[in-house]
Each structure stands twice: as C-alpha cells, then as structure tokens.
Amino acid sequence: MISFLSRGVPSIYRDRDRLRTWLTAVARDHGHRIGDLNYVLMSDRELLKYNRAFLRHDEFTDVITFDGSSGSGPRGTEVSGDVLMSLDRIRENAGHYESSVQGELRRVMVHGLLHLLGHSDKTTALRKAMRAQEDKYLAHY
Questions:
Q1: What CATH number has the domain bearing residue 36?
Q2: Is 120 in a helix, a strand, or coil?
Q3: What is the secondary structure of 7-70 as a DSSP string?
Q4: pLDDT for the residue numbered 74
Q5: Distance CA 139, CA 71 (A)
Q6: Alpha-carbon distance 68 to 91, whole Å?
Q7: What residues form DSSP beta bridges with 25?
Q8: How many domains does the chain have?
Q9: pTM to 2 decimals?
Q10: What local confidence, expressed as pLDDT, does residue 69 receive?
Q11: pLDDT tens-place values along the chain, 141 residues long
C-alpha cells in the first residue's frame, strides 16, 4: 500500500493512481513488491528536525528515507518505509533545475524509493549512477 500524506503543508500530489502504478513498477523492476510505503510532504523546518535527530545533520535536505522493510513477504521481498520530503526544497530545486514542481516531486519520490531498494548516493560515482536510475524511471512515468 502506498500512502501520500502532507504535514503542515499543502498536498501537491497529482494523479495518485498513476503514481502508485509507476512506483510499483520501479519496485518490481528491482525484484521487489511494495509493502507499506508512506510519502510525507512537510516543511523545511519540520524535515530539519528529523535530519538533526536521526542523521545528526544540521542542514536542509529534500528527502530523508526510513527503511521499514522486514525482509521477505509472502510473495517475495517487500519494500516498506517512510519517505519524508520537504515541499520547500522541492519547489526551490524545481526552479534551480528548470523543472516543474510535479517533475521535481516525482524525482524526489523515486529517489527515496531507490534508497529503499538499496541504491546509495554517498560518493560522486554513486550519485551519478543514482541520478541515471532516477532519469530512467522518470522517463517511464
């Protein structure tokens, strides 16, 4: 089940059924199925609290992912978790990258899912590879 939530900011999710179908296909392409996946939009300030508390980073970010997977489900490996996203960063990045807000929202959403699927962006090479994966799946949206 994929949920789309907003905490203290307007919901900007569009065409939720299409988003669910797309995200499910990304997981399936990695040999996984979706368990419980929550996308939560919030403000910079709210996400900063999580960044400080759980990652010990004192800076704004666009997305933080919390893996809630417990391993194998009845039909294969399930991916579950919470993807916390800053609406402020999404809007700012959309302007910076000359993208639509909806396009940047989808990029952040798939980025979070890719983390849950085992991708990392800790080095320059890994960031480049992850960006290529994002672009691949965004093209399939």
A1: 3.40.390.30
A2: coil
A3: SSS------HHHHHHHHHHHHHHTTEEEEEEEEEEE-HHHHHHHHHHHH---S--SEEEEE---
A4: 47
A5: 29
A6: 27
A7: none
A8: 1
A9: 0.92
A10: 80
A11: 999 999 999 999 999 999 999 999 999 999 999 999 999 999 999 999 999 998 888 889 999 999 988 655 444 589 999 999 999 999 999 999 999 999 999 999 999 999 999 999 999 999 999 999 999 999 999
| Phi, psi for residue 12 in degrees, rounded to 5 | -115, 10
Contact assessment for residue 61 and residue 84, using Cβ atoms and an 8 Å cutoff: no
Under DSSP, the state recorded for 90 is H
Question: 66 has which bridge partners?
Answer: 82
The answer to whether 101 and 90 are in contact (CB under 8 A) is yes
Strands 32-42 and 76-86: parallel
* Cα Rg of the chain, angstroms: 14
CA torsion sign, 71 to 77 to 78 to 83?
positive
Please state whether beta strands 76-86 and 72-73 pair in parallel, antiparallel, or not at all (unpaired).
antiparallel
Residue-range definition of the domain harbouring residue 104: 2-140
User: Which helix or strand (DSSP H or E) is residue 77 part of?
Assistant: strand 76-86
Q: Which of 61, 69, 122 is nearest to 93 (CA)?
A: 61
Rounded Cα distance between 35 and 26, Å, is 13
